[in-house]
Amino acid sequence: MTRIKAVVFDMDGVLVDAKDWHFEALNQSLELFGFRISQFEHYQIYDGLPTSRKLELLAKNQGFPMSLATFVNQMKQQYFMGIMEQKCVPNDRHQETLHRLCEDGFRLALASNSIRLTVDLLMQRTRLATYMDVTLSNEDVDRAKPDPEIYTLAFNRLGVQPDECLVVEDGAYGIEAAKKAGAHVLVVETVHDVHYRGIQRRISELEGGSAKRRAA
């Protein structure tokens, strides 16, 4: 019988409503050189990928010169930090959700395609860092999502098997990565779909009964 021991979260679009921040920051940096992506393109093609990979695709799709990639990437991170300073605030429901999952005995992890600096700052500003047993960024792996490497690493560091984990994801690349890694997946549309009841319901479905833990 399936027994879930850990819950692993994506960050952008799951625990932090930062998708549009990435879109805005990337376009601010691209517009310095006359390039821009539409919101439709962002969500259909680029969303959920590391900035370096987005620029590689932009080079293929729009002829973006990769000689500018390092500078544009650096500028994008600077613009993103400015947006984050203005817009990133704690989410009480997410804090309650992670707190209750910890009380139930689940181990928790974060596995994000963002860089380490972004991950650490967002987790601190949202006051969610304290709940995580493991926190991974795209700098902790050789291959970012949709490759399953980051989730496999998370499971190893948590000390659990893939089929003992529930991954909470919103994007196609992350969902693909989690499934390739052998985990169960809870797909959410927005950060507003991430709450204790929904996660417990999915775990209960997988376990065939109550997902709440009892003290040993």
Automatic annotation (TrEMBL):
UniProt xrefs under InterPro entries: Beta-PGM-like, HAD-like_sf, HAD-SF_hydro_IA, HAD_2, HAD_sf, PGP-like_dom2
Keywords: Hydrolase, Magnesium, Metal-binding
SUPFAM superfamilies to which the protein is assigned, alphabetical: HAD-like
One function term, GO molecular function aspect: metal ion binding
EC number per UniProt: 3.1.3.-
Required co-factors: Mg(2+)
Cross-referenced PANTHER family: 6-PHOSPHOGLUCONATE PHOSPHATASE, HALOACID DEHALOGENASE-LIKE HYDROLASE DOMAIN-CONTAINING PROTEIN SGPP
Family to which the UniProt record says this protein belongs: Belongs to the HAD-like hydrolase superfamily. CbbY/CbbZ/Gph/YieH family.
Protein name (Swiss-Prot/TrEMBL): Phosphorylated carbohydrates phosphatase
Organism: Novipirellula herctigrandis
Lineage: Bacteria, Pseudomonadati, Planctomycetota, Planctomycetia, Pirellulales
